[in-house]
Design goal:
Number of strands of chain B: 11
Oligomer: heterodimer
Structural class of chain A: mainly beta
Largest interface: A-B, 24 and 22 residues
Low-confidence stretches of chain B: none
Largest sheet of chain B: 7 strands, mixed
Strand content of chain B: over 45%
Shape of chain B: globular
Low-confidence stretches of chain A: none
Mean pLDDT of chain A: 90
Mean pLDDT of chain B: 95
Distance between the termini of chain B: 36 Å
Radius of gyration of chain B: 13 Å
Order of helices and strands of chain B: EEEEEEEEEEE
């Protein structure tokens, strides 16, 4: 089943923070996060495996609450380059099952 | 290291024609995937492969076929093209438990 992302869209000024959420109704093995700029291919940001770990990548980090089947992506002190559509992809309850992507959250950062 | 390459970049097909979208990766990834992305939408998995000789259906496999004779190549075949197959097609590859790396995409129009 397709994960649900919220919000659908976010508008920020440079330096502001944002949180994007991804929820699934099924037990998950992993959650992936990708960013896609207009007219380009999606780019891998990070993967979170079952175990509730939090990962960071510069000013972008994410958490995975295995019990709630939820993941959140945190964008801190946003930059213009953060603009794009963010997708979460969820992997079922065991490794090797295919990802199902959410519909995406569009983030617009202005100066 | 070219990553994931796709050909062609653009193609216009007439209804009923057939074509093959090529995908090659040079990262020695065992997993490969084909997605389609309709305007403003997320990624839908068409087929995927966990290794040479092994393929499996994704969410939207009807009208498509794949083969995986080598680790590097994962072509997608469209038989009897229909307007509903107008989309952007992305190929991706990964290690198991790894993030997916996407090719630049093929924009296909069926008229």
């Amino acid at each position: 089943q397709q994960p649900v992302q919220s919000p659908q869209a976010v508008i920020l000024r440079e330096g502001e923070d944002a949180v994007i959420n991804c929820s699934s109704s099924k037990a998950l093995y992993s959650v992936h996060w990708y960013r896609q700029k207009h007219g380009e291919a999606p780019v891998f940001l990070m993967i979170l495996l079952k175990g509730g770990e939090q990962k960071g990548h510069d000013k972008i980090s994410a958490s995975f609450n295995e019990k709630k089947q939820q993941s959140s992506l945190y964008l801190t002190a946003s930059q213009l380059s953060y603009s794009g559509t963010y997708f979460c992809g969820t992997e079922g309850n065991q490794a090797g099952t295919a990802l199902i992507f959410g519909k995406g959250t569009t983030l617009s950062v202005s100066s | 290291n070219a990553g994931v390459t796709q050909t062609p970049k653009f193609r216009i097909l007439k209804i009923g024609q057939s074509m093959t979208l090529q995908c090659t990766q040079d990262m020695n990834h065992n997993y490969m995937y084909w997605y389609r992305q309709d305007p403003g939408m997320g990624l839908k998995l068409i087929y995927y492969s966990v290794g040479a000789g092994i393929t499996d259906k994704g969410e939207v496999p009807n009208g498509y076929n794949v083969s995986r004779s080598t680790t590097e190549d994962f072509p997608l075949r469209l038989e009897l093209a229909a307007p509903s197959q107008t989309s952007v097609y992305f190929c991706a590859s990964s290690y198991s438990n790894g993030g997916q790396y996407f090719g630049p995409g093929t924009r296909l129009t069926v008229t």
